[in-house]
UniProtKB/TrEMBL annotation:
<dbReference type="InterPro" id="IPR011701">
    <property type="entry name" value="MFS"/>
</dbReference>
<feature type="transmembrane region" description="Helical">
    <location>
        <begin position="45"/>
        <end position="65"/>
    </location>
</feature>
<feature type="transmembrane region" description="Helical">
    <location>
        <begin position="255"/>
        <end position="273"/>
    </location>
</feature>
<protein>
    <submittedName>
        <fullName>MFS transporter</fullName>
    </submittedName>
</protein>
<dbReference type="GO" id="GO:0022857">
    <property type="term" value="F:transmembrane transporter activity"/>
</dbReference>
<feature type="domain" description="Major facilitator superfamily (MFS) profile">
    <location>
        <begin position="9"/>
        <end position="398"/>
    </location>
</feature>
<dbReference type="GO" id="GO:0005886">
    <property type="term" value="C:plasma membrane"/>
</dbReference>
<feature type="transmembrane region" description="Helical">
    <location>
        <begin position="375"/>
        <end position="394"/>
    </location>
</feature>
<feature type="transmembrane region" description="Helical">
    <location>
        <begin position="285"/>
        <end position="301"/>
    </location>
</feature>
<feature type="transmembrane region" description="Helical">
    <location>
        <begin position="344"/>
        <end position="363"/>
    </location>
</feature>
<dbReference type="InterPro" id="IPR036259">
    <property type="entry name" value="MFS_trans_sf"/>
</dbReference>
<feature type="transmembrane region" description="Helical">
    <location>
        <begin position="12"/>
        <end position="33"/>
    </location>
</feature>
<feature type="transmembrane region" description="Helical">
    <location>
        <begin position="221"/>
        <end position="243"/>
    </location>
</feature>
<keyword id="KW-0472">Membrane</keyword>
<keyword id="KW-0812">Transmembrane</keyword>
<dbReference type="InterPro" id="IPR020846">
    <property type="entry name" value="MFS_dom"/>
</dbReference>
<keyword id="KW-1003">Cell membrane</keyword>
Length: 444
């Protein structure tokens, strides 16, 4: 897996991702503690609302930002967005009112809504080989797990000598170092010229990724899996601080340790996935991960009895979380031509976070009003609905070489000539200007 780090450009980008996420992880711990400091036992509801605002920024702005930035030079764009995020994080230690948390989180995540899809869409251009890209996805998943594992451990150590307000400084440093590392390499530019297709209007560019995504069966299945992931993940992210501090009467370091257990499970799965995906296709692996999340969330009712049981459950949920999510980049890459990849990654970013937008406030509200037991059961049922939809929407075998024809194309059209037929023909298919709908396919 580590062999791909010989690629200097990818190595620097991966380091930038790791360092920025370490800083973001410190912010996640500090934000939870800040919410508890301001709201006490209602911290879950406050944090759930803050994270819902984050999701609103992601869902509403990611496709629009991509439409306006898809032809801008990637390196200055990513550096500028890192600097904006660092500047906003600088203001978080001075928050004294709950509404200030909401405002700063929106501005910070608006910049992330433009940064993350652009960053993700750059990696397949740097690593065009499928095996290299699969390993890059696992390394990327490990980087995200550092936010859940190393950051809480680092936060626990720092909290013994400093106040949690000082943890926000780590977020600022992370964004600044990330910007410096991106600046140190040359990135492939956005697709322009003959290979990029016609120049499109803003509305077309804004909606193109969504249209490709929602017309592709495997990506509709991915959206349903995103719902199962969000249902389980929201219980961990929103309610850990309440379960540990209000439920078990423990201190801040134990909050960090619980989040680290979740990250450890996710990291174990990410390390194992490259070899698993060499032998199995994406569909059964991702469905199995979603099933673990559904069962594990239901088991949360039993885990409320002891802190040790909670740690074990969070570890299992981390395993399912990474297994269900990590291969998603492979699906997105297979499902779009290179010029359309940024739009499709932006659609995944927005639609997956729409699922979190539903689940974050629901997990916080149910935990605060109905209790943690009903919250666990409700989120498990939502996850089960997502798993069932994914099973239904994503065909077994995941075919993309499907017989189809083009009734509106004239005989002799270059596409028909290229595939050796003026009528029905086969080729690996993605949604584009010539294929606006997925052909009907039935297993033989």
């Amino acid at each position: 897996m580590l062999a791909i780090l010989r690629n200097r450009t990818y190595r620097h980008l991966f380091a930038a991702q790791v360092i920025a996420l370490l800083g973001t992880g410190l912010m996640t711990v500090a934000l939870g503690l800040l919410a508890y400091d301001l709201a006490g036992a209602d911290a879950g509801a406050v944090l759930g609302t803050a994270l819902a605002i984050k999701m609103v920024a992601y869902v509403g702005l990611a496709p629009v930002a991509q439409a306006f930035t898809d032809r801008l030079p990637r390196r200055p764009l990513l550096v500028g967005l890192d600097l904006i995020r660092g500047a906003v994080a600088l203001g978080l230690p001075f928050v004294s009112e709950i509404w200030q948390i909401y405002l700063l989180i929106f501005v910070l995540q608006a910049a992330s809504a433009a940064f993350t899809p652009t960053f993700q869409a750059t990696i397949p251009d740097i690593l065009p080989d499928e095996n290299d890209y699969t390993r890059a996805l696992s390394l990327s998943r490990l980087a995200y797990d550092l936010e859940s594992l190393v950051s809480p451990m680092l936060a626990a150590a720092l909290l013994s000598i400093i106040s949690f307000h000082s943890l926000f400084a780590g977020t600022v440093v992370g964004f600044l170092v990330s910007a410096a590392l991106v600046l140190s390499v040359r990135l492939p530019g956005p697709q322009v010229g003959p290979q990029s297709g016609p120049r499109r209007g803003v509305w077309d560019r804004t909606t193109r990724g969504m249209r490709i995504y929602l017309a592709t069966p495997r990506l509709r299945g991915l959206l349903a899996i995103n719902l199962a992931v969000a249902a389980a993940g929201s219980m961990v992210i929103v309610n850990t601080v309440v379960l540990v501090k209000a439920g078990f009467g423990l201190a801040e370091p134990q909050v960090a340790l619980a989040l680290a257990a979740f990250g450890a499970g996710s990291m174990i799965a990410a390390l194992a996935l490259p070899s698993v995906l060499d032998r199995l296709s994406d569909r059964p692996v991702m469905l199995a991960g979603a099933a673990v999340l559904v069962i594990g969330t239901a088991a949360g009712v039993a885990a409320m009895g002891s802190y040790a049981a909670l740690l074990a459950l969070w570890l299992v949920l981390g395993l399912g979380y990474s297994t269900a999510q990590t291969p998603s980049g492979r699906l997105l890459r297979r499902s779009a031509h290179a010029p359309d990849r940024p739009a499709v990654f932006a659609a995944q970013f927005a639609l997956s976070h729409a699922c979190w937008l539903i689940c974050y406030p629901l997990a916080g509200y149910l935990g605060a009003t109905a209790g943690m037991g009903p919250a666990f059961m409700a989120m498990s049922l939502i996850g089960a609905a997502g798993l069932g939809l994914a099973w239904r929407l994503w065909p077994q075998g995941d075919p993309d070489d499907i017989g189809h024809d083009h009734a509106g194309l004239p005989a002799g059209h270059p596409h028909l000539v290229a595939h050796g037929a003026n009528g029905r023909h086969h080729h690996p298919l993605v949604i584009d200007d010539l294929h606006r709908q997925w052909p009907v396919w039935r297993a033989s």
